[in-house]
Amino acid sequence: MNNKFSSQWNRSTQTRKQRKYRHNAPLNVRQRFLAAPLAEALRKKYGKRTAQVRKGDTVTILRGQFNKHKGKVDRVDIKRSRIFIEGAQTIKRDGSKILYPIHASKVRIEDLVLEDKKRKAMFEVKK
Fold first, then answer.
1. Is 111 exposed, middle or buried (CB count within 10 Å of its CB: 0-12, 13-18, 19+)?
2. pTM for the whole thing?
3. Which residues of the chain form beta strands (DSSP E)?
4. For the domain 35-126, what is the CATH code?
5. Three-state secondary-structure class, residue 59
6. Are 38 and 109 in contact (CB under 8 A)?
7. Residue 8: its pLDDT value, please?
8. Nearest to residue 45, comparing CAs of 120, 124, 102?
9. How far apart are the C-alpha atoms of 39 and 57, rounded to whole Å?
10. Is 73 in contact with 59 (CB distance < 8 Å)?
């Protein structure tokens, strides 16, 4: 088997090989790494524990300097494995504000955007 990113990658339990896989994974695989836990109400409603974070979802930040901050996801950067949330900003030295990058595992999804048919179907199946 010549495919570097086949489903067999997780056979190795070595941390360095796991880290290497995640670092070299293509974007379609990296997208799956951007999953966050759902709020209790959503867990009961849909029967799922986690979901991929998307632009427009409302999330609560659980760690770091913006702890307990609630806001909408403004942008998702799959390449850097970070999400940007409205209101979570830092001030640069020149005085301008920029959105602060946060890893998806450090947030909890409070409200989902279900405008996409595929995403809506995915949640309805578990029900």
1. middle
2. 0.84
3. 35-37, 50-52, 58-61, 70-77, 82-91, 97-102, 107-111
4. 2.30.30.30
5. strand
6. yes
7. 55
8. 124
9. 12
10. yes
- pLDDT, position 9: 61
Give the pair of three-digit tokens for residue 23: 């670092």
pLDDT tens string 22-75: 899 999 999 999 999 999 999 999 999 999 999 999 999 999 999 999 999 999
* 62-93 burial: b if 16+ Cβ within 10 Å, else e: beeebeebbbebeebebeebbbbbeebeeeee
Classify strands 107-111 and 97-102 as parallel, antiparallel or unpaired: unpaired
**What does each C-alpha distance from 9 to 14, 28, 96 come to in angstroms?**
11, 15, 43
Residue 89: left if φ>0, alpha if ψ -120 to 50, beta else—which one? Answer: beta
pLDDT at position 123: 87
List CB contacts of 115: < 8 A, sequence separation 6 or more: 56
Instruction: Retrieve residue 118's tokens.
Output: 């595929």
How far is Cα 72 from Cα 107, in angstroms, rounded to an integer? 11
